[in-house]
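Here is this case:
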Amino acid sequence: MPKIRLNITLDDELADFVKIFAAENRISVTEIFRQYISALKCRAEKDNRKNFFPNSAFHKAMADVQKKLQNGTAIWHNYNEVFGE
């Protein structure tokens, strides 16, 4: 699929956060937006993505993570805490 350039405007604090988050997770800012918008699209189209998780253990793990994120019990760590760099 061809890609297009999209310019967005964010306040300084939010822009700084997304840049730091991307660096700590070793992904691009573009990828953060791509994943978030893809998730919104799937939700809007009522696509629960079960077809993308053929392994039931993986699907359960993803569901558990989603539940923790939704109810606020997820414990966050930065890149250095996880990988010790």
